[in-house]
TrEMBL record:
Cell compartments where the protein resides: Cell membrane
Signal peptide from the UniProt entry: none
CDD domains: MFS_FsR
Key word Ribonucleoprotein present: no
The keyword Transmembrane helix is assigned to this record: yes
Pfam family name, one: MFS_1
Record's protein name: MFS transporter
Record PROSITE patterns: MFS (PS50850)
Membrane topology: Multi-pass membrane protein
TM spans (from-to): 12-32, 38-62, 69-86, 92-110, 131-151, 157-180, 207-231, 243-261, 273-291, 297-317, 329-351, 363-380
Residues in Major facilitator superfamily (MFS) profile domain copies: 5-387
Length: 398
């Protein structure tokens, strides 16, 4: 495993997810400054998720076909510029294009970055993907602190939040030559290496189930990050000054879970870790709308840890199903599923306006049991399948 490359990409992921989620983190502040309704909050969250997510498979498909190694550095600049535009938005309607530009920058980053991690990981794909993904989860967690910072200086302080994006852009541009060489080497190997002797397992059903599971996971993460802070403000009287801690705890424990999930998958199997994650986190998530204030932070920590422990695992599991489309699968699982979840969050915002945030939270968690059941039908990991075939033939795998 090339640690320098992995940690550079992980920092790029930290900056990327920090910049894309600063907007979500400061929603309570924007609600006050722009007098937003819950429906408008849902629209902005949907616009951010769609721009940053639904187009990711397109970037992934382009990367698989020809590759654009320079796009990694450029994506961080687009993210920073989009966030800066939020500072100068005069009204709600002008927030939308700012959020969309910010989201497109994120969409451009993830497929190529995941492919670069694949090249740099060698035989430690679970650990490498975990390091990469935990960077993103730490970025999510740190973005929660942005609310606390901007409460002191106002929206004019957004420009300071661009610093990680500029640093990240410089570091990612430094990988352009290495990434271009790996892409060229991969293309040559694809042309020269014959079709693998181990037949590919049917993966359409498995990939469809995986996309559904990841979509539900993204629905919970986006829904909890967006509406739980607003819920504790409305239901328990938590002030805007202190509400950031709820998102921070949820995402920090998610980062810890992500870091633990990859090595666990390398040892116990990707499918097993995905099953454990969904089975344990389902009842914890379903309880959220019913527990008292004193238990909200505890429940958020547990849901974050178990639910996001599969953040890296689902990516390498999906890549094993379609090994010739690494970037596209990464965009599908990291991006497209999140975009679909974002559409649902817009609906939840309207439910909150029409009824209450308490009712909206009940809507957020209702798909979790179905996703947990779907894990029972997932196919065997590609890596374990490759081990089983020689064993069945009486050959000891190396």
């Amino acid at each position: 495993m090339n640690r320098r490359i992995i940690f550079t990409l992980s920092f790029g992921h930290l900056a990327n997810d920090f910049l894309i989620n600063v907007f979500t983190a400061i929603l309570p502040l924007l609600v006050i400054d722009f007098h937003l309704s819950y429906g408008q909050v849902g629209v902005l969250t949907m616009a951010s998720n769609v721009a940053s997510s639904l187009v990711q498979p397109v970037f992934g498909w382009i990367s698989d076909k020809k590759g654009m190694p320079w796009l990694l550095g450029l994506s961080a600049l687009a993210l920073s510029l989009g966030l800066l535009c939020v500072e100068f938005a005069p009204s709600f309607i002008w927030l939308i294009p700012a959020v969309v530009l910010n989201g497109i920058g994120s969409a451009a980053f993830h497929p190529d970055a995941s492919r670069a991690v694949f090249f740099a990981a060698a035989d430690k794909r679970g650990a490498a993907q975990s390091i990469f993904q935990v960077g993103g989860n730490l970025g999510l967690a740190i973005s929660a602190i942005a609310l606390r910072f901007l409460q002191g200086v106002g929206l004019s302080g957004i420009a300071w939040l661009m610093i990680p994006g500029v640093v990240s852009s410089a570091l990612l541009f430094s990988l352009t030559k290495w990434f271009a060489a790996r892409l060229a080497e991969g293309a040559r190997q694809k042309q020269s290496v014959p079709t693998a002797s181990i037949p590919a397992r049917p993966s359409k059903l498995g990939l469809s189930l995986l996309v559904f599971i990841v979509t539900v996971r993204s629905w919970i993460v986006s829904g909890f990050s967006t509406f739980v802070p607003l819920y504790v403000m409305a239901e328990f009287g938590v002030t805007a000054r202190h509400v950031w801690i709820y998102t921070f705890v949820f995402l920090v424990f998610g980062a810890i879970g992500t870091l633990a999930g990859g090595p666990m998958a390398d040892r116990f199997g990707q499918r097993n870790v995905i099953r454990l994650s969904m089975v344990v986190s389902t009842p914890l998530a379903v309880l959220m709308p019913y527990i008292p204030r004193d238990l909200v932070l505890v429940d958020l920590a547990l849901v974050g840890f178990f639910l996001l422990s599969t953040f890296a695992v689902t990516v390498i599991y999906g890549q094993g199903m379609l090994p010739n489309n690494i970037a596209m699968v990464s965009g599908l699982l990291i991006g497209f599923a999140g975009g679909i979840a974002g559409l649902g969050i817009m609906l939840v915002g309207h439910i909150a306006d029409e009824y209450s945030l308490h009712v909206a939270l009940k809507w957020i968690v209702w798909l979790m049991p179905a996703a947990a059941l779907c894990t029972l039908a997932l196919p065997v990991d590609a890596a374990r399948l490759r081990q089983r075939i020689p064993t069945a033939l009486g050959v000891t795998p190396r």
